[in-house]
Amino acid sequence: MNVFEFSTTPIDAARLAAPLASPAAGGFAAFEGRVRDRNEGRAVTSLEYEAFEALAVAEGGRIVADAARRHGATLARCVHRVGRLEVGDVAVWVGVSAPHRAEAFAACLEIIDEVKHRLPIWKKESYADGDSGWVNCEHAAHGTAPRFDYSRQAALPEVGAAGQARLAQAHVIVVGAGGLGCPVLASLAGAGVGLLTIVDPDRVEASNLHRQPLFALADVGQPKAEAAARRLAAYNPGLRYEALVRRFDAGLGAELLAGADAIVDCTDNFAAKFLVNDAAQRAGVPAVIASVYQYEGQLQVVRADRGGSCLRCQWPEATRDGLVGNCAEAGVLGPVPAILGQLQALEVLKLLLDLPGQLQDEVLLVDLLVHGQQRLAAPRDPGCAGRCLRVDGATAPARASEVDLMLPLAAAAAAGYRIVDIREPMECAFEPLPVPGQQALPLGRLLDGALDVEAGRPYLLVCAHGVRSHAAAEYLRARGHANVWSLAGGLAAQAG
Amino acid sequence: MPRLQLRYFALLREQAGRQAETVETAAATPAALYAELAARHGFRLAAAQLRVAVNASFSDWEHPLRDGDEVVFIPPVAGG
C-alpha cells in the first residue's frame, strides 16, 4: 500500500479503508472531498484534475507519514483523483486508523489541509455557461507553503535533529518583557523553544520602543506580555506562548517552575531579581540573570540544579534598589540591553542543548563602550542566604500569602508579636524601626541559627522591603516554626 | 610601591571619569584601596554596597594585594 497515490478511476472508499483496519486501532476517521456544483458564484458542471505526479507522490507520502507520526496514528493513506470528474464525485480521500478517535481525527485533518496547501495539483473547472478555467488548488501554484525552517541551526553538529527536538520540548519562563526580555524572547522563539511563558505586569509605553522592538507604536497602552505573545505568534506560529499580565512572586514562581527547563530574569530591579533567584533555588531550575547600566551589563547563570552560586552569593543583603539608577533614571542605549539579552538567550540555548562553555559560578562583565568583556569567578558563598532557600524535596515552599502580614508595626507590637529586625547594622542605624523593644538580628546570623524561637509566641520579621524577611520567614517555617511571619512590603510600606 | 591595575564599572566609572587606571599605592587590601580612591574620586557608595574582584575572581575586602594585581570594583546594577 502506498500511503499517497493518484487514481484515474473513481474512488472506492471501502476498498481503500480495508487495509487500514488494525487490532490496535480503536478509531477510524475518513474524509472525502467532493466536486461541488458552484465555485465563487459560478455554476460548475465538471472539472479536470492535473498533477505534477512525481513530485506530488513524494511530497504527499511525506505529508501522510509526518501526520501519522505526529498524532500517533496506526495507519493512514490518501488517494487523489486525476482526470475528469463530475459534480458529486470524490476528488480526494483520506483515511486514518488510530488507537483513539482524537488521533484519527487530528491526523485526518492535518493530511487533507497539507495536501490542499502543498501539493502541485491544478484543476480546470467547466462552467454551466460553457466557459472553463484553470484554478489553483489552494497554494499549489506558489509551491509549498512556507514553514519555519530550523535547518541552518540544526546544521550545527552539536544541535542536529536531536537538539532541535529537545528545544521543541523545552519550557522557558521569561520574567520581564523589556529591553532584555524582547531579544531573549525573539531569539528563543527563533530557535524553536516549544513553550515560552512571558510574565510582565506592565503596559507598553512609548519610551520603551527604542530598545524593545517586539512592540510597535500601535501597541502603546497594551499589556506587554500579551503584545509580545501576539508578535511572537505571528513570527513563529508553530510554538506555544503563555502571556501572564501579572507581577512575578514566590507563589507564581512555585507554580510555573515545576517542570520548567529555565527561567530568564529580564527585570529591572533587585527585588524582582531576588524573587526570581529564590524561586529558581527552591525549584532547582537554572536561572539566567542579567542587568544593564548605561553602556555596561552583568550576566550570571544560577545553576540551582547543580548547587551553583546564586545572586545572593554575589550581592550582600544590604543591596537595595535605588542604590544605582535603573534605565529610566540612568538612561540606556538600545543595543546594550539587546546584546545582554542575546547573551541570555545564548546561555539558555547552551543549557538546553548541553553545549560547552556554560557560565556557572561566575559573573560576566560586559563594557560595550570599550568592548571589554571579563569572566569573574564567583564561587558559592558558604554564608549565603540562597543555600537556605532550598527546600527539601518533600517540603512544599510556603506561599507568599501564607507568610506575609500587612499591618502597622505598632499594632503588631501591641498584639504581642516579637519583632525581629533582620537588616544589616548599617541599615538599622540609618533608619531605626519605629517601635521599641525589637530584637536586631541580621539575616546572615538568623540563617546561622542565632534566633532562639520561643514556642507559642508569634514572630514578625522585618527588613527594608519585605523580600529578605519573606525568605527568612519561609526558611524558619520550613524548619518547623509555624508562627513566624514577614512584614509585607517591609519598612518601606510603613512610611506615611 | 606596588602598582595596581584598576577597572571601574557603572556609577564608579562615571564618578571616577574613567573606566580604568593604573595606581601606585601603599594600600594593602581592597578595603584600604577603596578608601583611598573614594577620597580621591569622590565615590559616594560605601564599600559594603560593592563587590570587589582581584585578578578575575570575586574577593573579600581584606584580601592582601600584590604588585601587578588587577582590581575591579563592581557596583550592583539592576536595569533591564
What do these coordinates show?
- Chain A is α/β, with parallel strands linked by helices and 496 residues long.
- Chain A has three domains: 4-142, Molybdopterin biosynthesis MoaE subunit (Aldehyde Oxidoreductase, domain 3), CATH 3.90.1170; 152-388, Rossmann fold, CATH 3.40.50; 398-493, 3-Layer(aba) Sandwich (Oxidized Rhodanese, domain 1).
- Helices cover 34% and strands 24% of the residues of chain A.
- Chain A has 18 helices and 22 strands.
- Chain A has helices spanning 13-17, 53-71, 101-118, 151-154, 160-169, 181-191, 224-235, 250-257, 270-283, 311-314, 327-330, 335-353, 386-389, 400-403, 409-414, 425-430, 443-450, 467-478; strands spanning 4-7, 27-34, 38-39, 42-51, 75-81, 83-86, 90-98, 121-127, 132-136, 171-175, 195-199, 240-244, 262-265, 287-293, 296-302, 362-367, 372-377, 404-405, 418-421, 439-440, 459-462, 484-487.
- In chain A, the strands form four sheets. In chain A, strands 12-11-10-13-14-15-16-17 form an eight-stranded mixed sheet, sandwiched between helices. In chain A, strands 3, 4, 6, 8 and 9 form a five-stranded antiparallel sheet that branches.
- In chain A, helix 6 (181-191) runs parallel beside helix 12 (335-353).
- The longest helix of chain A is centred in the N-terminal third of the chain and has 19 residues, at 53-71.
- The termini of chain B are far apart.
- Chain B has a domain at 26-67.
- Chain B has a five-stranded mixed sheet.
- The relative contact order of chain B is 0.31.
- Chain B is globular, with a radius of gyration of 12 Å.
- The longest helix of chain B has 12 residues, at 30-41.
- Chain B has two helices and five strands; from the N terminus they run E-H-E-H-E-E-E.
- In chain B, 24% of the residues lie in helices and 28% in strands.
- In chain B, a hairpin with a 3-residue loop joins strand 3 and strand 4.
- With 80 residues, chain B is an alpha+beta fold.
